[in-house]
Design goal:
transmembrane helix, 43 strands, 7 helices, eleven-stranded mixed β-sheet, membrane, transmembrane, 665 residues, glycoprotein, cell membrane, alpha/beta
Length: 665
């Protein structure tokens, strides 16, 4: 198969070489327009200016100075800084101090595993977003520095020396390694075109990509020229990895794209070529290898030392469309991202309807996605967007809502703040943990920008008690001397880690704790760990059953607490503990409330009836013996009207009683 592939490549080369040169107009390189579908990314450890020296005067401290040269001083540059340790030991690391300044506005997002970092920066033009548990920030009011050398001088006076200095352009990401001796000189004296690769690597999106516009909407072939212009320091043997990816934003990528790839460099360099299109011709200086073929190193050819000569070389191969021309100062890896769609080739020559990189929409989307102002709590979503991040926007935000326009953020002068329940504002909860909604911001120009977002509910350990092995109806009552079933559930979005049930015990009131699980295994013969069906997304489950028996045949306590502790094995191990209060039901307990039997109910009813009869008889006896005495009292012949009325009423009442009639007779 490889021989067939090699033969196909040779035939392609011979046919292209034998083709007559194409009669084309002179190619005038122009900056690549946004939307023409080509991006060139590369990684390098070489910075415009930098230096290293021995560690700072204090042996347990490193001081690193970074000066950010923003390309667009009127806009907001965005930079990720990943900090890692060379030795991988978090317990014996020195204190690390970063002094950062910039000549424009910059949003700096810091990520580190578990390092004690201190950042000193100017909060007027640098906005810091820390994604580390041990990070500290010191917003020292740094003066405005016109150059990196001035910042370096200030840091030397402040700390008595520095470990490193680097003045960088506008990279997307910096990988910085600390905890290693990187310099031997006594002083850090900046050098131009400095190789900081032993401790720093930058991921850069090239802003120097150019192309030659082509009159045809669907050119037959296209060429991409990459000129890697290393300095004399890189004249030794060096390997560079190169990949070309063809993608499509909407639809399928154009798989049959015919490409001529020109890789210009010094002859001592080795190009390790990975992914490319199926129909790619190579014009390479030096040697190169194809990862999908085991043919070893392939000798290249001598290429012209000017861009005009390189373009002419491509035209001689029968290609009249220069899709991209890029000069890169130094790189370890290079990636060409080409957007070409199957259904339409217009993307190759016509700018697509995309937002400009500095348009309000793209700027706000990037800013908010980097700041990440939202977070999920147990039952709510909270959004708190600091307005200091928005000061660089030319079109300010006036209103911020969720998907439901009735859920409006409050403006408290410093933040846009919004709180919402998980069941409100069109919020969706997927897999029991992933919370999704949209942030809709309205600008002063009345333009609306929609930013979909997702956050995960906090990790939570829950215990449930069941009386049957089906695990259907949870209960809080534990039957004495009966089998009880326990389910231990951890809500987590981390599906790649494993959950280990470490310990469980039953703590009865006034009794010694009863161990159930110890070190992930049964603690006694009355405990059995059960198999668990496949975990649902967002939930990790353990199950076991046990029988609660009192020691020495004694009676159980009427209340107890079930306690479990689990560990989640991942890069940063975590442990969780939860408890469940239960009531203990003992049918044989003297104090056990068994209810009232029918005999008891009948007895109580008859007793109440008898007491009622006796009480009625006693009252009648008293009434019948006291009434005649009252009737023998003299009555006035002419009583007052009110008394007569009262007497008549009394007589009427007496006459209406059968017993009183019999007495009168």
């Amino acid at each position: 198969m490889e021989k067939v592939h090699c033969l196909a490549l040779l035939l392609a080369f011979s046919s292209a070489t034998s083709a007559s040169p194409v009669d084309v107009q002179d190619c005038t390189l122009q900056p690549l327009e946004q939307g023409q579908g080509v991006r060139v990314l590369y990684s390098t450890g070489r910075v415009p200016s930098g230096c290293v020296s021995r560690a700072a005067p204090e042996a347990d401290r490193e001081v690193h100075v970074l000066y950010l040269q923003c390309g667009d001083k009127s806009g907001m540059s965005q930079l990720f800084l990943n900090v890692s340790s060379a030795d991988g030991n978090s317990t014996q690391r020195r204190k690390v101090v970063f002094v950062v300044s910039a000549n424009g506005f910059s949003l700096l997002t810091i990520h580190s595993e578990d390092l004690p970092l201190t950042f000193i920066y100017n909060s007027e033009n640098i906005f810091l977003n820390m994604n580390t548990n041990n990070g500290e920030t010191n917003t020292t009011a740094l003066p405005s520095f016109a150059s990196g050398e001035e910042l370096l001088k200030w840091a030397k006076l402040k700390y008595g020396g520095v470990s490193s200095f680097a003045s960088v352009g506008s990279p997307q990401r910096i990988h910085f390694q600390v905890g290693k001796e990187i310099g031997t000189s006594e002083d850090c004296i900046p050098e131009t075109d400095f190789d900081a690769g032993q401790y720093l690597e930058m991921d850069v999106i090239s802003s120097e990509v150019k192309s030659c516009p082509h009159p045809s909407k669907n050119p037959r072939k296209e060429a991409h020229i990459v000129w890697l212009q290393q300095g004399h320091q890189d004249s030794g043997t060096q390997a560079v990895e190169l990949n070309m990816n063809v993608t499509c934003d909407k639809g399928d990528p154009f798989k049959e794209l015919s490409v001529v790839l020109v890789l210009k460099s010094q002859h001592s360099l080795l190009w390790n070529i990975g992914s490319t299109t199926h129909s790619t011709q190579f014009l390479v200086s030096g040697k190169y290898s194809l990862k999908h073929m085991s043919s070893g190193k392939i000798d290249g050819e001598a290429l012209p030392d000017s861009k005009e000569g390189l373009i002419r070389k491509v035209h001689d191969r029968g290609v009249d469309f220069i899709a991209s021309y890029t000069e890169i100062p130094s790189a370890n890896r290079i990636t060409l991202e080409v957007v070409r769609c199957e259904e339409s080739r217009e993307a190759a020559t016509t700018p697509q309807a995309r937002s400009h990189p500095h348009s309000p929409t793209r700027e706000i989307e990037g800013l908010i996605n980097l700041v990440v102002p939202w977070r999920c709590l147990e039952n709510t979503i909270e959004v708190a967007l600091a307005k200091q991040y928005l000061s660089v926007l030319k079109d300010p935000i006036t209103i911020m809502t969720l998907s439901d326009s009735r859920c409006v953020a409050q403006d408290n002068m410093t933040h846009f703040v919004l709180r919402s329940g998980l069941e409100d504002c069109f919020t969706r909860v997927e897999s029991g943990i992933h919370v999704k909604n949209k942030l809709i911001v309205t600008l002063a120009s009345l333009q609306q920008v929609t930013i979909p977002f997702q956050c995960d509910l906090p990790e939570k350990l829950s215990l449930q008690l069941f009386s049957t092995p089906e695990f259907r109806l949870p209960s809080t009552t534990l039957e004495f001397n009966e089998v009880a079933y326990v389910q231990v559930s951890l809500r987590t979005a981390d599906q790649d880690s494993s959950l280990q049930l470490q310990e469980c015990s039953l703590k009865a009131t006034g009794r010694t704790s009863m161990p159930l699980i110890r070190n992930g295994t049964s603690a006694s013969s009355s405990v059995e760990i059960l198999e668990v069906p496949d975990n649902s997304p967002g939930t990790r489950i353990h199950r076991f059953r046990f029988v609660y028996e009192a020691k020495d045949g004694g009676r159980p306590s009427l209340s107890a607490t079930l306690v479990c502790w689990v560990s989640l094995n991942r890069h940063n191990p975590s442990s969780f503990e939860s408890s469940l209060d239960v009531k203990v039901n003992d049918p044989n307990s003297p104090s056990h409330d068994q209810g009232l039997g029918i005999g008891t109910v009948v007895g109580i009813t008859f007793g109440a009836f008898l007491i009622g009869v006796l009480l009625t008889a006693a009252l009648w006896y008293i009434y019948s013996h006291t009434r005649p005495l009252a009737k023998m009292q003299p009555v006035s012949a002419n009583p007052p009207a009110s008394e007569s009325s009262s007497t008549n009423h009394s007589i009427g009442s007496t006459q209406s009683t059968p017993c009183s009639t019999s007495s009168m007779a």
